[in-house]
Predict the structure.
Amino acid sequence: MYRLDHVTKQYQGKRTVTALKDVTLEIPAGQHVAIQGPTGGGKSTLLQMLGALDRPTSGRVVLGEAELSHLPDAKLAGVRAAQLGFVFQGFNLIPTLTAQENVEAALAPLGVAAAERTRRAGEALAAVGLADRAGHMPGELSGGQQQRVAIARALVKEPEVLLADEPTGALDEATRDEILELLEGIRRDRGLTLVIVTHDSAVARRAERRLHLRDGVVTEGVIR
Amino acid sequence: MFFTFLRRELAGRRRQTAIVAIGMALAIALVMIVNAVSTGMRDAQAEVLQSVYGVGTDLTVTATPTAPGEGGAAGGPQRFEFDAGAGQTADGSTALSQSRLTSGPGSQTFDAAALDTVQAIDGVEAAAATLALENVTFSGELPAMSQDQGGTEVQTAPDGGGAPPQGGFDGAGGSAFDVDRVTVLGIDPAGAAVGPLSAAAVDEGRGLEASDAGQAVAVLDASYAAIAGLAVGDAIELGGTEFEIVGTVASTSADATTASNAYVPLDLAQSLSGQEGKVSDVYVQAASADRIDAVQASIEEALPETSVSTQSDLAAQVSGSLGSASALISNLGLWVSIAVLAAAFLTAILFTIQGVTRRTREFGTLKAIGWRNRRIVGQVAGESLVQGLIGGAAGLVVGLAGIWVVNLLGLTLGGSTGGGFTAGGPGAMQGADASAGAPPGGMAGGPFGAAASQTATEVVLSAPVTLSVIAIAVGLAVLGGMLAGVIGGWRAARLRPAEALRSVA
Ligand SMILES: Nc1ncnc2c1ncn2[C@@H]1O[C@H](COP(=O)(O)OP(=O)(O)OP(=O)(O)O)[C@@H](O)[C@H]1O
Ligand SMILES: [Mg+2]
């Protein structure tokens, strides 16, 4: 699915920070990968490279056939719209839109007709167990419910890859396990590639492959 | 999606939406009112001009003014002479009355042949000549002089002697005199339909006709006739001749008087005032608007002794409260509108930028899930535009209400034209009083005839709601909304999609 070749990412500022140092990595389609490491180690930066949110300073990032490191902004947006799903630690729902509308927002750039959009968003919400909360505003939902809406939003476009940055970081343990089971179930059903950044070893242990990032350098952890 | 999101967003921040919309509404309303009022002012000025120069007059030809004293045509000696037998004696008083027709104040005459010269010029559609005059009537009562009373006996005793004076207006030997001024315009009854009377319509009786040439008939301004207590069929003495009043005329714009108090046939006006073959003004209509400048140049060349003024030269001469109000509106009104408009636009822009900054994570997230910049810019611009349109709609209502109030107030403005050439006379008084830049009684007035120098017109200000006023409101609303939207959208477009991953902190 992914191939990273000597990827380096530097942030220019008062002091140049090298967030990723010469990372070479391959992630096969359908793999469940956990990324761990100390804070500031470069985990979110790596996720941005995988998620076509930013380009590396040097090296190549290839998703399937597309070389993300050389695509223009509009093309990157297209890749994100069609192939990638994101789940964030802070849920990142649009506060002024209902659960249903938040999910539909993911289909807007794909040019899906309104009726079709409504139907698919409804199905996605049902798949995360929130069919009865479609009309609620994010503020009226619990953290776990909000994250379910965010997962529905990530999955409604039927992406090939799901990228999650600390998806359970803001949740209690019971809710955390529910969310993980939901994600794993969907991955199994759809053959989804799942990349989760986490501080939580309990989350990391459930992955097939664990990567460790420290000072921008990747080392392989336990593979089971 | 676009409209749902837009509606939810604006509803979600009602207070900001309201502030921006109110600011925009006030600014737009102000611009509308100022625009409508200045249109009203312009109309009022045109009305004042029209009442003086007539409809369709493009150019006015007058004698180039010379300093008072040099001008030879200013009419005979200003003296009233009564011989011994003059007047009628009754009850011991002698009533005397004499009227004299002279050139009006500020008016200089030139040869009537100028009309033929003007009419021969290429591009002149029509021309008419007039002679502006003023009739001054001197009337009064004197005590009768009785021969036998004055006798040979010398009156020496202060407390006795002859009989006390009798007669006179107070019955005790006093005298009283009235001086009455009437503006008179000599017009060619068979002439072209240009000039002052083209803006007037017959009120009662009839107007002057071709067959009136040489006849002692007069047409009076309807409001003057009312004040003077004269009606059709009565007589008026002008220059010592009894004129039969055959009709009255009123200005076609309801609230203005006509150019003169009385209108008489030109030939009679010339002979009675001793100005044979002279005229004071020639009114010219050009064949088309784009030929006015050329016609002006040709006349100036053909008649070097005259001044040729266009309608816009004349408009600059409108003074009085109308002139000052007009200047106030066009200067102060314009700048206040611009300032308020700028403040409203700035408010809209700042709130939009602040909104985009507050929604950094929101827009980052939308970019992360695949929204292109174009869509996000469109969303931000759409929100601003709708905000502007709400303000525009509110502004339109407030502005129309404001214009309605202005019209309801029915402000009256006095305007006079060309006053101030000669010291004295109502025209000069107006010019001085208006403080529109003319030194009192000085030479700063325009080179216009007596009719011009004596015309003061009261005009009720009406601020019209024109299509352009509405277009301004809508245009400004769209412009303000777009401006804020483009700036906000540009800020949103610059956000990195990676902002979505920023920790909630
Ligand atoms: N936009 C940026 N500009 C400058 N420096 C940045 C930027 N984003 C990240 N960095 C730096 O790059 C390094 C890696 O950051 P990154 O966010 O990838 O760490 P992380 O492993 O995700 O940390 P955490 O566990 O705290 O989320 C850090 O030193 C950080 O300060
Ligand atoms: Mg991070």
Remarks:
- Residues A 11, 13, 17, 19, 37, 39-45 surround adenosine-5'-triphosphate (ligand 1) (CB under 6 Å).
- Chain B touches chain A at residues 1, 4-5, 8-9, 11-12, 361-362, 365-373, 375, 496-498, 500-501, 503-504 (CB under 8 Å).
- The longest strand of chain B covers residues 124-143.
- The longest helix of chain B spans residues 14-53.
